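Protein modeling request. Please complete all fields; requests missing the sequence field cannot be processed.
Requester role: graduate student
Desired output: 3D structure, token encoding
Chains: 1
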Amino acid sequence: MASGSVTIRVMFQGLEHTAIASPNPKVLADWYARHLQFRINFEYDGNFFVRAANGTMIEIIPSQGDRTPQAMRTPGIRHLAIAVDDFDRALAALREQGVKLLGEPYENQGNRLVFFEDADGNILHLIERAQPLP
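Delivered output (134 residues):
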């Protein structure tokens, strides 16, 4: 290292997990395990962490109060994107399991995607990218 150079340590590594509040966290955690091949990897006090094959996690916590209306473009987090390496097989699996699709699959800039809902009505989408994002 050259004299006078400074090493900058990265403090912020990225998202460790995203939380979803649910009226029944166990049911929703089981839904992610059954339909999307996540696994329940940690539980405490009614909170469930589910982990995807690539290591990303969702924490499912007990909700309080009534759910507010949700639409694709209302403010806030709008969807979670689920990466797949075989779009057709993943879509067929969702259809076979009766998962509610929010439209027909389509292609955008070479990427294949379809929006759908989890057991609580949260918006998700499958995506198979033609090329990884930079």
